[in-house]
Each structure stands twice: as structure tokens, then as C-alpha cells.
Amino acid sequence: MVEWTDAERKAITTLWSQIDVGEIGPQALTRLLVVYPWTQRHFGSFGNLSTYAAIVGNAKVANHGKTVMGGLESAVKNLDNIKKTYAKLSVMHSEKLHVDPDNFRTLAECISVVVAAKFGPSVFTPGFQEAWQKFLAVVVSALGRQYH
Amino acid sequence: MLSKKEKKLIKEIWERLTPVAEDIGSDALLRMFASYPGTKTYFSHLDISPGSAHLYSHGKKIVLAIAEGAKDISQLTVTLAPLQTLHAYQLRIDPTNFKLLSHCMLVTLACYLGEEFTPVAHAAIDKYLSAFAAVLSEKYR
């Protein structure tokens, strides 16, 4: 059972309420593919990812970024039950998509960087960052939970 | 592997950050202490509360060392030789912590540079900080 302080809950819901998944999602996924190019191995069906311009202009990347970021909604709404909420998604990532769970952690780092760039230091304070990263860490853990 | 373009970009960015080294450095440290409390165990001899003089001077030291290395990345092992010895034989900071500080440094840069912290800049600096950390821990064993 994850324990959240009131401050942490507030930070997470405050940040989430100001996040546009259609904006942050594509940026985060783009960063993942640019900063850690080996992650492109999971996106063979996305077409051209061979240059920075190709990745940034790729509609499938943008779409998928939005989908993945939107997937955090159920975690925000179920902070006290994240493990169960993501059980099915975890199975899917393991058995169908064969994604190394380490990639979840890497994407989470990219998400945090994009959120930081968007909100700046007065909103994304060290305290908010701690809560947000803890939140993402719980999601990451839940997504890797059903691997065997 | 860092391209010529990336090395130039890295050098430019850290040159720009040198005048605000203590702000950048202390911000990154504070973020690291907040998100990864285990890292505080290395600082029991300093006052690392927000705004403390120790925090600013230590943050400044770190950023200036990173900026110094950025001036000529091909000479990183030479530039960092004294710091290698310090970290290996005196400080003995577990190298996994370098990753944590690097991540927080990236977050600080994102906060302060905003849109300017493009994916290309992010990639270049992440690679540079990884190389920096690797060189720093070379004498550990």
C-alpha cells in the first residue's frame, strides 16, 4: 500500500490538472526516442524515425505519446489502488509488447523533464518534483508488476 | 559518442550557466535531496537546508567543475584527474548517485531554460553528464 501525504496528493492533482496530455505526451515520447535512440526498437511500425526532424514530425509518435500520457489519468484517479488499476496493462506490456520494464523508468524521467520545462521552477518545485516522481515511480512499478 | 556539434552546444550551454552556477547547482542539489533522501547521507557535515551558504557554495563547485570539463570534452580525463582521486579515495560516493544528480541537473536545466532545453540539447547534455560521471568514478577500482 503506497502512503501519500496530503501535500503529495495535492501536488500530483495540481500538476495533472494543468497538464495537456496532447501537448506533454508527444513531447515526452519524442524525447525518449531522441535521447535514448535504442528505444526506437519498439516502434518499427511507426515509419521514419531516422532523424530528429522525422521523429518530431511523425504523427504516429505524437498520437502514441498522447495515448500513453492519457494512460496516467487512471492512476491519478486511483492513487490508492495503482497496482490493481494497471494489472492488465502490465500483462499486455509483458506478454504482447515485450517491453523491458526499465524503459518505463526512462520514459518517466523524460516526462518529468518535459513537465519541468513546461512549468518552470516556481511551480515544479523540489517538493512538487518529489511527489510527481514518486507518483510516476508507483506507476512504473505497477506496470512491471505482472512480468514473470 | 558526442558529435562536434554536440560538444559545441554543450560548451555553449555551460558557459552561459557559469555566472549563475550557485543558483543552478543549489537547485539541482535541493531537488536531489528531496526526491532521493539517501543522497543526504553524504552531506552530514554540511548545512544543506534551502538557502544555506553551504548549499550555494557546494552547488557552485559542482557546476563550475562540469563547466570546466565542457570547455574541452576530449580532455575530460586530464581535467578531472584531481577530482577522480578525491572521489575514489576520500568521498567514495556510490556511483549510482551520479545518475540521480544528473537527472536532477537535467530537471533544473529544463526549469530554467524551458523551450530552449530542446530534445537535442537534452540528449547532448545527458550524454555529457554520463561521460563525466564515468570519468569521475574511473579510479574507484
From TrEMBL, chain A:
GO MF term (any one): heme binding
InterPro entries given in the database record: Globin (IPR000971), Globin-like_sf (IPR009050), Globin/Proto (IPR012292), Hemoglobin_b (IPR002337), Hemoglobin_oxygen_transport (IPR050056)
GO cellular-component term (any): hemoglobin complex
Keyword match Iron: yes
Domain (Globin): residue spans on this chain: 3-148
Sorted UniProt keywords: Heme, Iron, Metal-binding, Oxygen transport, Transport
Keyword Metal-binding: yes
GO biological process entries: hydrogen peroxide catabolic process
Regions that span the bilayer: none
Pfam family name, one: Globin
Quaternary structure annotation from Swiss-Prot or TrEMBL: Heterotetramer of two alpha chains and two beta chains.
Biological role stated in the UniProt entry: Involved in oxygen transport from gills to the various peripheral tissues.
Family assignment from sequence similarity: Belongs to the globin family.
Protein name, UniProt field: Hemoglobin subunit beta-1
Organism name: Crenichthys baileyi
Gene name for this UniProt entry: HBB1_1
Automatic annotation (TrEMBL), chain B:
A Pfam family hit: Globin
Organism from which the protein derives: Crenichthys baileyi
Protein's GO biological process: hydrogen peroxide catabolic process
Keyword Transcription regulation: no
SUPFAM superfamilies according to UniProt: Globin-like
Domain Globin: 1-141
PROSITE patterns referenced in this protein's UniProt entry, alphabetically: GLOBIN
GO cellular component terms listed in the entry, alphabetical order: blood microparticle; haptoglobin-hemoglobin complex; hemoglobin complex
Alphabetized UniProt keyword annotations: Heme, Iron, Metal-binding, Oxygen transport, Transport
Name by which UniProt lists this protein: Globin domain-containing protein
GO function terms (MF aspect): haptoglobin binding; heme binding; metal ion binding; organic acid binding; oxygen binding; oxygen carrier activity; peroxidase activity
Family under the similarity heading: Belongs to the globin family.
InterPro entries, alphabetized: Globin (IPR000971), Globin-like_sf (IPR009050), Globin/Proto (IPR012292), Hemoglobin_a-typ (IPR002338), Hemoglobin_oxygen_transport (IPR050056)
